Amino acid sequence: MHTAIVPRKDSPDACRHYTKLEQVPWDIQKYYHQRYNLFSRYDDGILMTDAAWYGVTPEPVAIKVAKHIALGASADKAVIIDCFAGVGGNTIAFARSGRWKRVYAIERDEDVISCGMHNAKLYGVDQKISWFHGDCFDIIKNELSPLCQCSVVFASPPWGGPGYRTEAVFDLTTMQPYSLQQLLESFRQLTENIVLFLPRTSDLRQLAKANEETKRIKAIHYCMAGASK
Questions:
Q1: CA–CA distance from 166 to each of 3, 93, 118, 159, 169 (Å)?
Q2: 116/109 Cα distance (integer angstroms)
Q3: Spatial separation of the C-alpha atoms in residues 176 and 50, rounded to whole Å
């Protein structure tokens, strides 16, 4: 039914491993100081694109998210689909949890998915993950739909860059490139088992309204070292 993509033999130029602060573009230098929170095995050769530095879920948070999903999912849910896998932060945590028979990771950016596959191998979980390059909505509908009844769909969508922090309350209806409504409408065609990882300042009233006709939802606020994530 499906096959994982084949990783490149050599990393593309956009996949970088910085070893000195002076190598790092000024606008992501603060994230470089947090590199071991992003990936504890950073020094083993973790690769990221520059944009991934502010988009990847920090490893301690990813591990906690994976634990909560594992505990909350019913026993008949055997696989998890990471719709916006990026460079592998959440995907690796899911694979390391040991809860899932298979982790399916989807990423539309070719450079980013190359980084993710490389990073999963560094953590020794590459054999537990099937990677798909393309649009998550198309891939779930056309390739993974037979699995949806036994799946949890996880989505940490792009939020439009770090600029979201300037908003006291983040408007989920204008989130780019995918609004809350678009995400839920697309995923609900396949399953009700949906987990969204959203900005910490998200408007919870919008989230509640979007779920008026479904069961009660749970919202969890994650923190690391006393700071919201």
A1: 41, 29, 33, 13, 9
A2: 11
A3: 19
Summarised one tens digit per residue, pLDDT across range 61-119 is 999 999 999 999 999 999 999 999 999 999 999 999 999 999 999 999 999 999 999 99
Q: Which two tokens stand for residue 173?
A: 């209806």
> Closest Cα partner for 159 from 111, 201, 199?
199
For residues 31 and 88, what is the distance between their CA atoms, to the nearest angstrom?
17
- Residue 107 backbone phi and psi in degrees, to 5: -150, 135
Query: Torsions phi, psi of 181, nearest 5?
Result: -60, -45
- Work out the burial of residue 10: count CB atoms within 10 Å of its CB; fewer than 13 is exposed, 13-18 middle, 19 or more buried: exposed
Q: Is the pLDDT of residue 210 over 90?
A: no
Tokens 């769909």 belong to which residue?
A: 153
Integer Cα distance of 99 and 105 in angstroms: 15
- Which distant-in-sequence residues (6+ apart) come within 8 Å of 139 by Cβ? 106, 132
Tokens of 73: 């999912």
The string of pLDDT tens digits covering residues 104-129 is 999 999 999 999 999 999 999 999 99
pTM of the model: 0.91
Pairing mode of beta strands 194-196, 151-155? parallel
